[in-house]
Write a structure and sequence with these properties.
By secondary structure, the chain is an alpha/beta fold. It has nine helices and eleven strands. The protein has two domains: about 160 residues, 3-Layer(aba) Sandwich (D-Maltodextrin-Binding Protein, domain 2); about 90 residues, D-Maltodextrin-Binding Protein, domain 2 (3-Layer(aba) Sandwich), CATH 3.40.190.10. The strands form three sheets. Strands 5, 6, 7, 8, 9, 10 and 11 form a seven-stranded mixed β-sheet that branches. It has a two-stranded parallel ribbon with strand order 1-4. Strands 2-3 form a two-stranded antiparallel ribbon.
């Protein structure tokens, strides 16, 4: 155990440069990034970008879940899973001091409340429709009377009204509610990143993810504002995850369909 602690301390020491005035010392890095002793990783069920469960094997994967576990190992602290309904709740929990780590779309609006790493992976944004829907292409979505679902508090909820001249944007509490609203025909389509749409479509026989995209989403590690002194450790973790295959493994396990490329 003592050797393991020494190795972890050495890894952190290499990751934290002494020349950065706002960087914490190696021995304090764990205290900055995991101040309660464990790394509290915020997740929500239903999206490969956060956490999904395989209905056949019962295994749990997702970018926030898997990378959070690996980050906890990197720091040498326990992994603590903190569950929420949607990403907006995860970020609110982070702002309230209840979450230490998650993976999120790195938007300027969210950067006001959390600190982001470099981009991990970029995703297409698209639309999901039911198998009986007459909507054939993304161009058919923006018509009078169309109701386009989004997750409440999401980037899509803020962005789509600026892009759609005729359709109405309707918030859903979470992804499960969105599926039910589509099946009850309370929504004509649902919009978010394509990995999440494909995950939803697996639960809806005949459902289709439309060709084309209405935007891109750039995922990054998020930590609370005020802990930028530990960001160099996060940066090194992300760089190593991208170079040593850890990120590729997490992506493969989570199975996000609709990924563009890491940038």
């Amino acid at each position: 155990m003592r050797i393991g602690r020494l190795l972890v301390s050495a890894m952190i020491a290499m990751a934290v440069p002494a020349t950065m005035s706002d960087a914490v010392s190696a021995q304090d890095a764990r205290g900055v990034l995991a101040p309660k002793g464990g790394l509290r990783v915020g997740v929500y069920l239903g999206s490969p970008t956060s956490m999904v469960r395989n209905s056949n094997t019962g295994e749990t994967h997702g970018l926030s879940f898997d990378l959070g576990k690996e980050m906890a190992k990197y720091l040498g602290v326990p992994f603590e899973q903190v569950n929420y309904q949607r990403i907006a709740d995860v970020l609110a929990g982070m702002k309230a001091g209840e979450v230490d780590f998650t993976v999120s779309n790195a938007t300027p609006a969210r950067a006001l409340d959390v600190a982001f790493s470099r981009t991990l992976i970029s995703l297409e944004l698209g639309y999901l429709v039911t198998g009986t829907s007459p909507i054939a292409t993304a161009a058919d979505v923006d018509r009078p009377g169309m109701r386009i679902g989004v997750t409440q508090g999401s980037t899509s909820e803020r962005t789509l009204p600026k892009l759609l001249a005729n359709a109405t944007v309707v918030p859903a509490q979470n992804l499960n509610d969105a599926i039910k609203m589509l099946e009850r025909r309370e929504l004509d389509a649902f919009a978010t990143n394509k990995p999440t749409l494909f995950e939803m479509s697996d639960q809806m026989p005949g459902a289709r993810v439309l060709e084309g995209r209405w935007g891109e989403e750039h995922l990054a590690v998020a930590i609370p504002k005020g802990r930028e002194g530990g960001m160099e450790v996060v940066r090194r973790f992300v760089e190593e995850a991208q170079s040593n295959g850890l990120l590729a493994k997490a992506v493969a396990q989570a199975g996000p369909r609709g990924a563009i490329a890491s940038k």
